[in-house]
């Protein structure tokens, strides 16, 4: 069929459209010829627009470019940006509500077209243009124009990661964005865009580089400060390496040697702590009640801002529901204000939204506080958190907000513990992580108790005729919890009621365990034993049917700290595990994953060693003879089996912070054997096991390499060595001596590993770093 004169076949039209796109892409990648669509004539763009389904976006960008000079009419610029924004906003909205699936060109054609034809670069130029001139009397951009520019850029970022990465590479633009945060009217849009940009940035931003950071932060109201914490979270935490190999201790030690200077996140933490009043304001945000959250309801009027601020379907759904129902009410009911004020929606949903709103603020604040607590400035942070009464404040929020009961079955979507999108899940986990970091190896842990509970600890020590620990005596009672229960006791109560499948059980156990970690305190253990914690743990391990390895590991670790050196705990254990069937179930759980349970095994071995030195005590002798767990571990062959397995499941290349405990537990077995002159016996048993398994030299060579790594790793880490000493009640000097004895190169030494490896199988000369 013939075509009309002057027209082209459809095939040629499509090729022509592709030629335009190809020329732009080529120009952007090479820097030659056409690099943005605005360099193409408007006539050609209009001609190709309908066939290519560009919706006039290239033409609008051409007009925007032509009218966006230094002294241009800003109202005209704003009008064009609004028109462009209408094409992009719906694509961005669909992206937010569809769980941010991987963006493709075909999924978001308008945003792709906008970026391809230079829209992103053009908006950056428009925003930054006032900063690039010394000319006076330059027209000032309105707040609405700035907001619309930022919103368009954000819409592009959330749909196309390439746009975000491109903006992240422009340090000048990122720093300029921070200056916009000083304007309350543009703060929200600026904060959301910065958060997305920093999330993909290859290099962590240096907070010190932000112009006038202290005054900027001090100018924020509490609502803005909470939002700013979302940005801070990516500047004070080490980035996730994303590769398991990089998480090995070998790789981390090599990285520390290569980069001995403080990391960017450490420098950023110091910068924050130097801002006057910063920590105090975070503590107030973390502990304020929902009713105190001034201005929380005002944001409900800004629906267009809410969906860009929160990428959470829960909040978005509730906001949209409220807006829809309010609109329907307005059209069908009287306009009488009193009837609207008493409507069910006005009464119910805004309060629910206030709670969610406040919870999401607190998630970000608690994350920042937690990151600071585990940083190098930990002691300084601890002192300030105690001074500003963070713990008593959280205790007062526990029942009403942190672990509040749902009073209605008609709960907002996602507010149950099994829903991954629930803000309450994130809030509870951050709260538990904070408690874990706060209590771990620090004397301030007693701030988690109230006055009555502190008195109870003193009474336990008095009854047992043991001195109170210094940390308890020195606790400032003006800073502890008030009310009928302290925070630790409240946590125990909810922990024992938590369903078996709950995702919180792991974090709850970790938080309670951190209270016990450090130098073993009999009074602390008895305080928890009296509240039924041991029975709860044993039920969870033996009878609950729990299958989660993470939860079981946390319960094993907690049980180890609870029972260590405590004869009463072993009595309670024997009373609960009162049948052979229960005992075998318990041992099966231990043996199913020794990486998870080795800390408990270490506790049992250490406790057995201490009890065997106290045989003049009748009650100890009774427990030694009756407790199935102690009797099992007292058999030498069982301890040797654990030793063999512990050494066999790790090597230098696979050591991580999670499994290095296996190496230390094996060392505990050998240190105790050395005390009793049984070290040669144990080493010979390992040698015989090698030959029985038909791989002579393999196990002992591996153990030799592990101990050489142990020397490099621990002899330069004060905290790690203190932890080893506190957890085992064995001086670190004895740890070092035992490792040196085992690594002795003298072939005649009966305590040296080398003496038990036949020369044909010896492989000790190679540097394990090269293995």
Q: How far apart lie the N and C ends?
A: 73 Å
State the share of residues found in helices, binned by percent. Answer: 55-70%
Please state the CA-atom Rg, rounded to the nearest Å. Answer: 32 Å
Mean pLDDT over all positions: 82
- Strand-pairing-aware structural class: mainly alpha
Low-confidence runs of at least 5 consecutive residues: 1-16, 99-106, 241-245, 294-349, 407-421
| Tally of contiguous helical segments | 40
- Tell me about the largest β-sheet: none
* Strand element count: 0
Strand percent estimate: under 5%
Report on the architecture of this protein.
The structure is a single chain. With 771 residues, the chain is mainly α. 64% of the residues lie in helices and 0% in strands. It has 40 helices and no strands. α9 (171-180) runs antiparallel to α10 and α25 packs antiparallel against α26. Mean pLDDT is 82; it is low at 1-16, 99-106, 241-245, 294-349 and 407-421. One of its GO terms (biological process) is ubiquitin-dependent protein catabolic process. This is Short transient receptor potential channel 4-associated protein. GO terms for molecular function: phosphatase binding. Pfam families: DUF3689. It comes from Coregonus suidteri.
């Amino acid at each position: 069929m013939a075509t009309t004169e002057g027209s082209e076949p459809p095939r040629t039209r499509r090729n022509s459209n592709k030629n335009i796109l190809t020329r732009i892409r080529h120009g952007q990648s090479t820097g030659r010829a056409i690099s943005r669509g605005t360099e193409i004539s408007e006539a050609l763009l209009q001609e190709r627009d309908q066939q290519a389904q560009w919706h006039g976006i290239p033409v609008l960008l051409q007009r925007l470019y032509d009218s966006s000079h230094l002294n241009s009419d800003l109202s005209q610029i704003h009008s064009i940006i609004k028109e462009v924004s209408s094409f992009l906003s719906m694509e961005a909205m669909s992206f937010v509500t569809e769980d941010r699936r991987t963006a493709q060109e075909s999924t978001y054609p308008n945003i792709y077209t906008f970026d391809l034809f230079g829209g992103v670069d053009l908006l950056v130029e428009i925003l930054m243009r006032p900063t690039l001139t010394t000319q006076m009397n330059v027209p000032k951009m309105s707040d609405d124009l700035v907001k619309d520019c930022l919103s368009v850029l954000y819409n592009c970022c959330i749909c196309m990661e390439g746009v975000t990465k491109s903006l992240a590479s422009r340090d000048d633009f990122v720093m300029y964005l921070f200056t916009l945060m000083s304007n309350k009217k543009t703060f929200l849009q600026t904060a959301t865009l910065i958060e997305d940009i920093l999330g993909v940035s290859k290099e962590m931003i240096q907070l010190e580089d932000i112009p006038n950071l202290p005054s900027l932060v001090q100018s924020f109201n509490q609502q803005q400060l909470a939002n700013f914490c979302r940005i801070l979270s990516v500047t004070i935490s080490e980035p996730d390496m994303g590769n398991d190999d990089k998480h090995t201790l070998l790789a981390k030690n090599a990285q520390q040697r290569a980069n001995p200077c403080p990391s960017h996140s450490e420098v950023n933490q110091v910068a924050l702590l130097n801002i006057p009043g910063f920590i105090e304001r975070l503590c107030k945000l973390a502990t304020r009640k929902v009713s105190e959250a001034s201005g929380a309801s005002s944001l409900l009027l800004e629906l267009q801002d809410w969906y860009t601020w929160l990428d959470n379907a829960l909040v978005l759904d509730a906001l949209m529901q409220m807006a829809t129902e309010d609109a329907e009410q307005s059209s069908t009911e009287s306009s009488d204000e009193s009837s609207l004020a008493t409507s069910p929606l006005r009464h119910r949903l805004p309060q629910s939204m206030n709670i969610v709103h406040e919870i999401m603020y607190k998630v970000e604040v608690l994350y920042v506080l937690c990151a600071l607590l585990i940083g190098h400035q930990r002691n300084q942070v601890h002192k300030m958190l105690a001074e500003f009464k963070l713990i008593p404040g959280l205790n007062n929020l526990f029942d009403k907000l942190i672990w509040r009961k749902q009073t209605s079955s008609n709960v907002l979507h996602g507010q149950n513990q099994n829903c991954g999108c629930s803000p309450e899940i994130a809030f509870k986990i951050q709260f538990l992580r904070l408690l874990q970091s706060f209590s771990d190896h620090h004397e301030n842990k007693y701030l988690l108790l109230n006055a009555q509970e502190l008195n109870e600890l003193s009474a336990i020590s008095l009854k047992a005729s043991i001195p109170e620990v210094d940390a308890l005596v020195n606790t400032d009672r003006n800073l502890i919890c008030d009310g009928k229960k302290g925070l630790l006791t409240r946590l125990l109560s909810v922990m024992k009621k938590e369903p078996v499948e709950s995702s919180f059980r792991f974090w709850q156990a970790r938080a309670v365990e951190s209270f016990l970690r450090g130098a073993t305190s009999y009074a602390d253990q008895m305080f928890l034993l009296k509240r039924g914690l041991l029975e709860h743990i044993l039920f969870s391990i033996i009878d609950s049917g729990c299958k989660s390895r993470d939860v079981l590991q946390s319960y094993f670790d907690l049980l180890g700290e609870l029972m260590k050196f405590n004869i009463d705990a072993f009595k309670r254990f024997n009373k609960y595990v009162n049948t052979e069937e229960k005992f075998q179930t318990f041992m099966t759980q231990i043996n199913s994953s020794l990486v998870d349970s080795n800390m408990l095994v270490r506790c049992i071995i250490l406790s057995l060693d201490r009890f065997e030195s106290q045989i003049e005590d009748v009650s100890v002798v009774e427990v030694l003879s009756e407790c199935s767990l102690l009797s099992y571990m007292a058999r030498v062959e069982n301890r040797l089996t654990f030793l063999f397995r512990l050494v066999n499941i790790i090597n230098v290349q696979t050591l991580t912070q999670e499994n290095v405990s296996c190496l230390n537990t094996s060392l505990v077995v050998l240190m105790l054997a050395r005390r009793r002159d049984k070290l040669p016996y144990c080493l010979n048993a390992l040698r015989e096991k090698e030959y029985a398994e038909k791989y002579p030299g393999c196990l002992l060579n591996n153990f030799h390499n592990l101990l050489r790594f142990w020397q490099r790793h621990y002899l330069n880490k004060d905290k790690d060595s203190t932890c080893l000493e506190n957890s085992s009640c064995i001086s670190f000097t004895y740890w070092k001596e035992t490792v040196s004895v085992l690594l002795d190169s003298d072939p005649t030494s009966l305590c040296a590993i080398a003496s038990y490896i036949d020369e044909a199988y010896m492989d000790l000369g190679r540097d394990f770093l090269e293995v």
